[in-house]
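Design job #97: recover the sequence.
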């Protein structure tokens, strides 16, 4: 679905509906661009209000990548904390891979 968003075949709203996700723009602590969590089947994405428009968009795409990669569905929540950086890196690599592929479309 992210590939479709990045190549313009679906809108941001369509992606949010597809994933049953909400976006909240709010002041977050310095250094926190955004985060996502699932509560009762709804993905809640928070984006730092202090970011520029383009950084907000980039952060939203990053958080959607976490959803698409099923990072929030990890079975062992205790071990999740030890792999946060791995998940962050994987989300970034995934976006780069999609963007590289969308150049060929």
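Job complete. Output follows.
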């Amino acid at each position: 679905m992210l590939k479709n968003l990045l190549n313009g075949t679906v809108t941001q709203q369509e992606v949010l509906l597809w994933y049953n996700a909400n976006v909240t723009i709010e002041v977050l602590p310095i250094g926190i661009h955004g985060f996502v969590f699932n509560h009762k089947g709804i993905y809640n994405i928070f984006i730092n209000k202090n970011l520029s428009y383009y950084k907000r968009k980039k952060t939203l795409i990053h958080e959607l990548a976490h959803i698409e990669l099923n990072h929030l569905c990890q079975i062992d929540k205790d071990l999740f904390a030890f792999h946060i950086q791995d998940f962050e890196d994987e989300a970034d690599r995934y976006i780069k891979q999609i963007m590289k592929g969308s150049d060929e479309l």
